[in-house]
Amino acid sequence: MSLFTLTFWGSRSFPVHRRAVASQIITNFARPRRQLQVSAIHDHHRATPEMSASNAAKASDGTPSKRQKLVVKEVTADMFAAPPNSVLIHACNCYGNWGKGIAEAFRLGYPNANRNHEQFCDRGPDGMAQVGSAQLIPPMDEDPKAPEKGNKKHYIGCLFTSEGFGARKDPPATILKHTRTSMIDLLQQIADLKKDGKAVGEIRMCRINSVLFRTKWEETLKVLRNIELEPGMPTEVTVYERPSKS
């Protein structure tokens, strides 16, 4: 095999095998030394989903971008006295049971939605809905004030914040964690409806978790107000506290 001599800066000449090194020499000397080092670093630190999400959240100048957070307003009024196509939200267990509290008002006022909800939960794994997710029920109950027009009343938003209910309800910390993920899920479903051209009105909710799930409203409110919104998601929700009975 033929030999030839190479001379490197600051080193002596030495013979090498031509065929053995020719390809490597061309490759290495075609790139600066720093580029070789950077390539090695990139190979060692391959992008993970977490890194990709972090990079996506950065602006073009490299600084973290600030996404808009959900605006939550509070009023004292009747949540159910809402315009057509409004979304009415409440917290649910995963077994399709609208038995007590404000859930009972939903069951009585929206019987078709209640049956839809029960079927939705029954079709889930182990006969129950996925905790931490949400269901958005389209309007399917007539407005009793104008039944001759065939008016449908409201969307019903169900947040599965606790797997069980009663003595089997989840602890407050778990309920708060599920409140965040289920609300994000619901907001995305509403965004998808609007993207498809569906009419969706204002978004109303009760003081979720605060009665039967025994979770402090102030803690739930903090979770809601810290939700970072994706593009297209609704930006505002109004919380309705029932007027006290005189």
Give the helix/strand layout:
Elements: E1 3-6, E2 14-17, H1 18-29, H2 33-44, H3 49-56, E3 71-76, E4 87-92, H4 101-109, H5 111-122, E5 134-137, E6 155-160, H6 172-195, E7 203-205, H7 217-225, E8 236-241
Parallel strand pairs: 3-8, 4-6, 4-7, 7-8
Antiparallel strand pairs: 1-2, 5-6
What would you note in describing this structure?
- It comes from Phyllosticta citribraziliensis.
- Mean pLDDT is 80; it is low at 1-61.
- Strand 1 and strand 2 (14-17) form a beta hairpin.
- This protein has two domains: 3-46, no CATH class; 71-241, Leucine Aminopeptidase, subunit E, domain 1 (3-Layer(aba) Sandwich), CATH 3.40.220.10.
- Strands 3-8-7-4-6-5 form a six-stranded mixed β-sheet, with helices on both faces. It has a two-stranded antiparallel sheet with strand order 1-2.
- With 246 residues, it is of the alpha/beta class.
- 35% of the residues lie in helices and 16% in strands.
- The chain is built from seven helices and eight strands; from the N terminus they run ββαααββααββαβαβ.
